[in-house]
Amino acid sequence: MREELTLEYAKQLDAGDELKAFRERFYLQPGTIYLDGNSLGLMSKDAEQAALQVLNDWKTLGIEGWMDAEQPWFYLAEELGRMQAELVGAKPEEVVVTGSTTINLHNLVATFFAPQGRRNKILADELNFPSDIYALQSQLLLKGLDPAEHLVQVKSRDGRMIDEADIIAAMTDEIALVVLPAVLYRSGQLLDIEKLTAAAHERGILIGFDCCHSIGAVPHQFSRHVVDFAFWCNYKYVNGGPGSAAGLYVNERHFGKRPGLTGWFGYRKDKQFDMVHEFEGAPSAGAWQIGTTHLLSTAPILGSLRIFHEAGIERLRAKSLRQTEYFMQLVDELLPASLGFALGNPRAADRRGGHISLEHPEAVRICKALKARGIVPDFRAPNVVRLAPVALYNTFEEIWQTVQALKEIIENKEYEKFELGRNVVA
Ligand SMILES: *Cc1c(COP(=O)(O)O)cnc(C)c1O
């Protein structure tokens, strides 16, 4: 076998990895290869510590935790926003950690979708995650507009990717707002945010991005590209824990605009407790908060973002690209087309996000066979095995083991032992 295809070579890559020590900070289960960090990132000791700290502060301080906790609860959402800003290339006050992905999308669209005359449609794509589409539909309905006419979804040419040229061609004078994923959840395609933002602005259109599949894996330059807004969850690559608080970014040129869904936690912090009825929003992304910070689902993010700060998002991206590159090389060399696999993610480094999208007609049963071997992928209908090597905790050796397992599962017809049909949570 060629040297680069051997287990020894994978081990050498791990030995030369400058980020390898971060793996020790995570809880990895013995005998398991976890490649599902793009659905739910693993718990770090740092996140656990931060969560325990809040529980202890609650236990010992009660109400005083808002101001007297080690990390005062009252300012935590803004503090985490400042820390998270470096992941998306934003100014510290342009980011806040709050709400959930879908709630933040609702609030941002309620703020930035202002239909006027002919310009009364929202542009999205046909491959986006359903929750985003449901939210866009309901925002249109709330304005008395029929989604069948006012939600334009750019078509994919191959069922995997969306062509930027097709998106730009759809930016007509009927479009008021564009909402797109930064990285597509199934194929892992990374859209050209700079180009799309410039094209939207040239046409007088506002634009925002769902960064659920890029945050913590792919750096962004939102301030430089003057992206209007963005939103994301913190439980995938950010490792904030199941259902953890989400994040949002609003470009500073929109500060002072009244959020679509206002609440008292978006009020100027120095005067929030004046309890007056005229809303005066914080002069920051903090204005887009609605209610009281969800402390128990926010605290772990503090520990997690400290890890990101130490590792550096650029270094993490560089390792992630090396890992997905290596993954693709092994797929090309060890899983010949005769075994039925096809790569569904873009190959170019500047076009792919953090995961590999491996297509196979037997994807459902292959995922079950992988799990039976202690390898955790996820399945995305109808035919995708999604595999995310996470730069903070996955090794090159694990990638090698996974490709070997895939080869054996098909060659030995191991998958035939499993039932067809996906599980309820897939
Ligand atoms: C994970 C994900 C969501 C999840 O939304 P929640 O409100 O956190 O449940 C939404 N959109 C995309 C693109 C996602 O990947």
TrEMBL record:
The keyword Endoplasmic reticulum does not apply. GO terms for molecular function: kynureninase activity; pyridoxal phosphate binding. Keywords: Hydrolase, Pyridine nucleotide biosynthesis, Pyridoxal phosphate. Pathway: Amino-acid degradation; L-kynurenine degradation; L-alanine and anthranilate from L-kynurenine: step 1/1; Cofactor biosynthesis; NAD(+) biosynthesis; quinolinate from L-kynurenine: step 2/3. The modification N6-(pyridoxal phosphate)lysine is found at residue 236. It catalyses: 3-hydroxy-L-kynurenine + H2O = 3-hydroxyanthranilate + L-alanine + H(+); L-kynurenine + H2O = anthranilate + L-alanine + H(+). Transmembrane segments: none annotated. Its EC number is 3.7.1.3. GO terms for cellular component: cytoplasm. Pyridoxal 5'-phosphate binds at residues 101-102, 129-132, 210, 213, 235, 264, 292. One of its GO terms (biological process) is quinolinate biosynthetic process. Pfam families: KYNU_C. Catalyzes the cleavage of L-kynurenine (L-Kyn) and L-3-hydroxykynurenine (L-3OHKyn) into anthranilic acid (AA) and 3-hydroxyanthranilic acid (3-OHAA), respectively. Homodimer. Belongs to the kynureninase family. This is Kynureninase. The lineage of its organism: Bacteria, Bacillati, Bacillota, Bacilli, Bacillales. The gene is kynU.
